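Work package 3, deliverable 3.1, input record:
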Amino acid sequence: MTISNTVSITDELIAAHGLKPDEYQRILKLIGREPTYTELGIFSAMWNEHCSYKSSKKWLRTLPTSGPCVIQGPGENAGVVDIGDGQAVVFKMESHNHPSYIEPYQGAATGVGGILRDVFTMGARPVATMNALRFGEPEHAKTRHLVSGVVSGVGGYGNAFGVPTVGGEVQFDARYNDNCLVNAFAAGLADADAIFYSKAEGVGLPVVYLGAKTGRDGVGGATMASAEFDDSIDEKRPTVQVGDPFTEKCLLEACLELMASGAVIAIQDMGAAGLTCSAVEMGAKGDLGIRLDLDKVPVREERMSAYEMMLSESQERMLMVLRPEQEKEAEAIFHKWGLDFAIVGETTDDLRFRVFHQGDEVANLPIKELGDEAPEYDRPWVEPAAPAALERTDVPDMDVAEALVKLLGTPNISSRRWVWEQYDTLIQGNSLQLPGGDAGVIRVEGHATKALAFSSDVNPRYCEADPFEGGKQAVAECWRNLTATGALPLAATDNLNFGNPERPEIMGQLVHAIKGIGEACRALDFPIVSGNVSLYNETNGQGILPTPTIGGVGLIDDWSKMARVRFAAENEEIFLVGGPRELGTHLGQSAYLRDLHGRNEGPAPHVDLAHEKAVGDFVRGLIRSGIATAVHDCSDGGLGVAIAEMAIASGIGATVDLADDCDAVAALFGEDQGRYVVTMSKDSAAALAAANGVNIVRIGTTGGSSLKLGRARAIPVVELKEAHEGWFPTFMG
Amino acid sequence: MKSAVVLLPGLNRDRDMIAALTKIGGKPPVTVWQTDTEIPDVDLIVIPGGFSYGDYLRCGAIAARMPVMRAVAEKAAQGVKVMGVCNGFQILLEAGLLPGALMRNASLKFVCREVKLEVANAATAFTSGYQQGQVIRCPVAHHDGNYFADTDTLARIEGNGQVVFRYADGTNPNGSINDIAGIVNDAGNVLGLMPHPENLIEAAHGGSDGRALFESVLGVAA
């Protein structure tokens, strides 16, 4: 019995596919007739926000994406950056926000699976992952459920796949109550001359389907609605896909083996809108048509329609164009790993995307236009309103010892050990710095001294107050965290999470954040080489905090000289590098004000990019010359929290001298940018040459078992540690 | 001394293990695949960690029934040394080469951290490089490391000195009975352990406490 592909196209069906009436008119004009049901699905998949970037493209184009070390910028599965010695690092960050809210374990797991696939599709073996997670306020009824599910999902997939998780973020804010964020980052290593791309080349070559079978899972949200119109869909499946890390691990090994054999001409993973996006991408990039025969697609469910097969988001699948003479060899490799291998089509010279099912042609569309003619919007936007200035007298004072202990035990500053101990941080045997420091570091396998540093950063509180400064700050903080290990930051990936872009104030946030990111990336020689945009993150008319997550990669020439957060020894000098004369001044939008006094007020801190670069370059020099013995950047919670974290990590106390007339709250908890805490031996300190324009202030000495801040009571390091380590396990129970 | 590493789909610490055997033993191990029915003439066979066949049935259960495991059992019976780490330990238990079982961690969560191990028996081929009672550092990374054996079995293996490694200083990460982290078979030529000594063998790992295990079993001087 044949499966019907005939469904009449009604206004409701068009709307259920997320296509606006004018977008539908555009389709009619493009193909000169009414689309078939399958074609409508294909258009909806290609023209949705996720695939087409229709709201953000205009602004994304303004980002700097090239540089001396960039081999491949945005537009491929992942960015590729040269790290010397014929090797390249391949990386990207991508969101899986909505699925993770609906089904936290599988949503997060498949987010990790998707980003790993993006990396190994390009021929790179994944060597590190990070996860930037944002949840609602701890008191919210769903938060613990989401944290528990997302963390086990991230671990469940990454641990089984076999890649170390080296860093990430976990934050809580009421603005994520109904819309958590799961941003997954992955990086891999490849030979610079063996990168694989999605562009197909050659006519009449086999298009091969590899990996897991196709099911109905993940058939777009549109399908759920369309079930009302199509009785042949007898089962409504959850739109969240189910991950299978075992198959993904086999797929990785099979793909790398196949790539090494020389059989692969083009490769594209099946991610969002699986077969549709991957086939169109390969053809359109290569100026070729693609012909698919759906009867050949390996399926794991009965009676799947063409529509379902084209829109399925079943995981762990790849599409390739292979050299025909190596077909048998390729098939043998895939069968060895227990994976499906099926020739499902061929490349053509007619520039059409033609899909056949049961002898019928169910789609015949112009392949270039499917991508190129996607709508692009210059959505109206408004200037974000600047927050009122914050007078120092408006900020309550507090005993700084009490404030520090409290801050260390707040949801947003406390240790994330409960989270990262559920991730395999050690697998592959190359992890040099684990989560909990400024950046995760892995050594480059096969090289005696080289290492890569990774950090993921954004402060959404700053972005809400000032999207431009917040965008700049996210880039600067990422760059700073990499620098604090001694790494030279190379390039970054951006994951832009925002609300509904059809609201001018949200669009204003997006535009300003991208402008800020661009300005910082240009000033810091830190190009964006890949990324992802996640819009419509809102519930009941309120958007999430604007959250442009930046994932950065840096290169360490000699890891034996890298810096860590922990104090290296007693009786060393502590310096604040890059701070103002008062050490700290800026309390607007600070953790002190928000987490201890419940107030989100004042302007975000300003990032002086020239200063940032000068200070960072100076600190990197101190690390590389072996002078700096420990380094930590000052971020959330300011200098006070930075020093406490250095003490906690080492078990060594410190004495911080504060002048009697000093404004201790601002000095210790101000969140002025571009600052690092650096320790060194007394001999090095005595010989320290001043750097041009970089302010270096000696602020104290390491030693003892307590932290003494000016005239406040000495806090035992064990007490700091208890406060810092205690919150998360207590919260999760 | 020659070694072999068993490769099964889903194992993922095979590269770590091969690196450790190569760096410490001086030459790379041979590898054997899931369907191989014969194992070359070697002195040591290692089953590394990971998630063989996704651990979708019970950890190690599918792997234990693959053809290569019959060959491993034959070699073990001939006295060839066999070592299973993490998933490898689970596989050896499922294959009946070691007594007891590994249950889900008491916390029900995956755990990756450094623990302390006491060398409870330094008189084995795997531990002769350590002192009896020596406490070493070693990382763990597992979801199902909660060792259990019935009372009689436990009394037997404790009495025979088959418990080789115990979690020390209150660092038991999984709730295993008697803090057991690693055991040998009755004959002393098959070792299973949950921790990952292969991830603590050089300066880059922040220590080399795992090295002596490889030096012992590979017969390499420290």
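Residues 40 and 326 of chain A are 36 Å apart (CA to CA).
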